[in-house]
Amino acid sequence: MKITPQCVVGLTWTLKDTLGAILDELDEPVEFLLGGDDLLAKIEEALQGYEAGATVSLHLEPESAFGDYDENLVFLEARKLFPSELEEGMTFDGAALPAGVNPETPREHIYTVTEIYPEHVVLDGNHPLAGIAIRLRLKVESVREATEDEIGQGSLGTGFFRLEAQAPGNNTLH
Predict the structure, then answer these.
(1) Where are the alpha helices (DSSP H) in 77-174?
(2) For residue 173, what pLDDT is reported?
(3) Cα–Cα distance, 80 to 69 (Å, whole number)
(4) Greatest CA span in the chain, whole angstroms?
(5) Cα 72 to Cα 61: distance, rounded to the nearest angstrom
(6) Which end of the chain, C or N, has fewer beta carbons within 10 A?
């Protein structure tokens, strides 16, 4: 079966920056819904018409991937506002930030704790891959028709490097 605008594709990949450093490798196939919210538009476009077994290589500039880095999404907040078990890499939903943080912090972003000081915490609302051009080598492991339920949900729940606010200690990059 060829990849169509609404199907489920099992992918593995190697993700590198433009200098060739590996940022992520996915060795076991993960299924994504095409035509939903799971993959970046440029990835969906590039996959159209391929079948299982195909390898697709892409170069994505920041505007086609995770956007440009916006220094206005970096905030310095009081350490005392956050839980004692706070660790670098933890994420917070902007809508659920602790009371007392800067009221001008946009609430529609996910914030990553990038640095912790005795009195302050640095929160970054940019995606960790924002501002980075990426090279992606995808291997199509499987292709199948999407079910009505999957199409209705618009996602299989596994987005391409989607950030999610999670409990302490959990990985936050999917």
Answers:
(1) 148-153
(2) 41
(3) 27
(4) 57
(5) 21
(6) N
pLDDT tens figures, 2-44: 999 889 999 999 999 999 999 999 999 999 999 888 999 999 9
* C-alpha distance across the termini of the chain, in Å: 27
* Residue 131, Ramachandran bin (φ over 0: left; ψ between -120 and 50: alpha; else beta): left
Q: What is the pLDDT, as a whole number, of residue 32?
A: 93
d(CA 95, CA 52): 40
Structure tokens at 41: 């538009």
Question: What residues in the chain have per-residue pLDDT under 50?
Answer: 167-174
Q: Which residues contact 130 (CB under 8 A, 6 or more apart)?
A: 62, 66, 67, 68, 69, 70
Nearest 10 degrees: CA dihedral of 113, 39, 65, 160? 30
Cα distance between residue 164 and residue 4, in whole Å = 28
Overall pTM > 0.90: no
Q: What angle do CA 27, 28, 30 make, to 5 degrees?
A: 120
- Tokens representing 29 are 């196939």
**Predicted pLDDT at 157:** 77
**Cα four-point dihedral sign 160, 164, 170, 172:** positive
For residues 68 and 73, give the distance between their C-alpha atoms in angstroms, rounded to a whole number. 11
3-class SS of residue 43: helix
